[in-house]
Amino acid sequence: MKCKVDLDCSRLEHTHVKTVAADQRSENIERLSKMKTIFTILLASMIGFVGIYVYIKLSDYLLNSESTDQHTDTRTHHKIVYHNLPVESSPQCSNIPIGNRRDCWPGSTDLLTDHKCIQKGCCWQPYIGSSPGVGGVPWCFYPIGYQGYVVQSLQKASSGMTVQLKLVQPSGWPNDINNITLDITYDSSERLHFKIYDSNKSRYEVPLPLHQTSNKVTDTDINYNVDIPTNGTFYIKVYRKSTGKILFDSQEASPLIFSDQFIQLGTQLSTEFIYGLGEHRSSFLVSTNWTKLAIWNRDQPPKRKTNLYGSHPFYLNVEDDTNSHGVFLLNSNAMEIEIQPTPALTYRTTGGILDFYIFTGPIPDQVVQQYTELIGRPFMPPYWALGFHLCRWDYGGIDGLKKVIKRMRDANMPYDVQWNDIDYMRGHLDWTYDQHKYNGLPNVVDDLHKHGQHYVMIVDPGISNTQKPGSYPAYDNGIDGDIFIKKHDNSGPIIGMVWPGNTAFPDFFHPNVTTYWTNLAQTFHNQVEFDGLWMDMNEPSNFVSGSVTGCPDNNLENPPFVPPVLDGKTLRSRTLCASSRQHISTHYNLHNMYGYSESVATKSALNTILGNKRSLVISRSTFPGSGVVTGHWTGDNTASWDDIYWSIPEILSFNMFGIPLVGADICGFTGETNAELCSRWMQVGAFYPFMRNHNSVGFKDQDPAIFDEATQTIMRDALNLRYTLLPYLYTLFYRSHVNGSSIIRPLFYQYPVSDYNNTYKIDTQFMWGTCLLITPVASQDTTTGLGYLPRDRWYDWFNQTYIDATGGFINFDLPKQHINLQIRAGSIIPLQQPAVTTTLARKNKFMIISALSVHGEANGELYWDDGVSRDAIFWGHYNLIKFNVSQSTLFSTIVKSGYKTESMVLGEVKVLGVEIAPTSVTFNNQVLPTSDYSYTNKTLVVDKLSVNLTEPFKLSWLV
């Protein structure tokens, strides 16, 4: 190196010699530190904390005496100031409770040592029962008063504020961003938006079409307060204005770090009652016991403590006064979310920006409504999609498919939709069918349609690239349109391997991909008139890691931080190279949105093909906003009793994520089922919003008609119960579509106050809307069991008797013949006589069941349209009828009368809880000659009616 002045060269040489010496001493220190850590763990297991205390103190003294003022960390390439914090004696370290330690060394891939920890300016204290750097109680944690970013300036406006932040202490992660900006916007009185980003350089942001309001509110209109310091260490606090309760508080949580590929921010939680943060197999209530959740979409049959098919960084937190709020981080990069006992939560993500939304509720369902207002309301499914669906992988060809269809019809099983898995394809090629094995498939589909049934088949995103040129339009057209995901250097499509062998993958963010996908779907629909599409393998799944030729060695493939994903240290396991190129960004940024983007393109294709008819899309991989276009099933589960239970918290979570059309593979996908397991599963599955029985290749048939007569009867009764309730379920979907309400709900939504917070922990029971309480059986040989009955009056669905519950667990009857179903007092539920298809059931008479409260009151509603028109709500082509009971009179009010093509005839009214036998019953002021009253059940039944529901009516009983 040339120097202009000798003095400068001498300084440079002196610095170089000093650095070499320091590095040599550092290596010695690291060796001693690693030996110390190993020995510490061994001693901890043998003699406990007291026995190692003296050893730690002595070794720390030796290490500190060897240390230099500065040290270059070869992992991060940052020169970090050595703060020389005492291991235990400093108040900055020793005054931190165990449950509030904030991990300073997440995602460590090598053996963490006290020397490395202290060099980062953090505290080191071993904790017996956990290991350093691998989860649990951290050994290396941030001290009190840790400074990362400080506030440089703060500018307030009527609808928010802008804050400039400056880095004062390097984080130890590569490429810290020195200057960042915080924008705070008062989106509405119930929604706060704050965004943290690089002040000087644009970064990747999630391309999700949010439903923002154009008119922001002012600080006088909001029901929350925001606290930011005007100088000093940065934090953000958000409080509920009316109560002062915490909604977001980063002051005593994990500090803000904003480097190129590691971004972190923590918050205190209001209580330990936190829900959401999917997709994971866990209880509905997320554990705060040092839980680390990886978010990175993965083709993985559901199992605990790993990342699964979807990404949903949204949670609902209950406050200690039963109010609730929600927090959504709009970020699509690989992410870790850690929840600790304080309770507190830390976000750590590998890229993008921090883009937060806070929803103030305060009722839990209002939080969900506010969330879906932002990401998009759930789509309105066609009526037939609420019927029973049947599928299996490998029917053995067209004859096997026909055999099952005939068997179900002969058994008189309610059954609306037949599906096909990948065995219908020619060589597993998308947009083909095997004209030898499945010769006559178009005729089978035509026959389904003639019987008022529908057809859905699977389509995977992987497009084979090994077919003869000119013989496979799916690949040829993709090459012509240049729509496939490319290698990192843009040299051509990245090639993975899925069912058909080597495959390319459409980039569903490419501007030409919707036309490409629509043309393929239209061509196939011209042959086989499908009614919906099933999107599988769209994480995207890949049978090789990255590509058939591997992945390059770069910072996207080997980031400095990897969340605790399955297979550990790499993001490319069972998917594409992170550095592969999509039209708008890298797969590193867009991976978690692949299934979402495919669902959007698929829904658009179906809208084009089917015109004004509603369609059905079901996707395995999901992201916030997916519910606008698709439903979801919970993936490749197992025929086990445990899997019945696990389906319930999963379905509760997805209703919270704005994807209410969700269900699990009934009777199990893999493994052999049996009559008891399958019948119990059919009973609870009748209350999944999306009800499908599906199993895998190599296992015996499990359609309801394959079982013995007694089991068939149980399953048929479960299906008839569902079909009877479909008008109520359809009305719940209407409410979900127009205001975002959940269909499946936990008990605490309706009953937040209970002894010992029981309802906050329950996920073995659930509710349909506000009216029905479902208590499933998820264990063998069970006919009685404990269930929670909230403080209210409850009517048994099957015998109409009621119990005035005081709020607590009681012993429920759980007969093998049917599920335990309770009606909440004060509910009015619209029903319809069932049939073997929804097409036929819609022609039957309606029924109304009214369950009176202790004050003799009740209310409900019915939404009705033609069941298929896509824009019925937009154009007002529907009927909406309200029902109310007061003073011994049930009356209807026509809120909307826009659908008159189909007659709506009321045939029966059943009123539960009529304490005294009526002396007379009138309908529209005309005395009815006959009615039935049960003194045992205190139930009034008025049947043999033929009343036009589109006109107001009044039913009164005189007591």
Summary of the model, kept short:
This protein has 959 residues and is an alpha+beta fold. The strands form 11 sheets. The chain has a 9-stranded antiparallel beta sheet with strand order 10-5-6-7-8-21-18-17-15.
* Strand fraction: 25-35%
Q: What oligomeric arrangement do these chains adopt?
A: single chain
Shape by Cα distribution: globular
The CATH topology of the domain at 149-375 turns out to be Immunoglobulin-like
Distance between the termini: 106 Å
CATH architecture of the domain at 149-375: Sandwich
Classification by helices and strands:
alpha+beta
Name of the top-level CATH class of the domain at 149-375: Mainly Beta
CATH superfamily of the domain at 149-375: glycosyl hydrolase (family 31)
DSSP summary, beta strand count: 53
Strand order of the largest sheet: 10-5-6-7-8-21-18-17-15
- Poorly predicted regions are 1-34, 36-89
Share in helix: 10-25%
The main sheet comes to: 9 strands, antiparallel
Helix run count: 17
| Rg from Cα | 31 Å
Question: What value does the average pLDDT take?
Answer: 91
Question: Can you characterise this structure?
Answer:
- With 959 residues, the protein is of the alpha+beta class.
- Among the domains are: 15-141, no CATH class; 149-375, glycosyl hydrolase (family 31) (Immunoglobulin-like, Sandwich), CATH 2.60.40; 744-958, Immunoglobulin-like, CATH 2.60.40.1180.
- It has a nine-stranded antiparallel β-sheet. A nine-stranded parallel β-sheet has the order 31-30-29-28-24-23-22-33-32. A six-stranded antiparallel β-sheet has the order 34-35-36-41-38-39.
- The chain is globular.
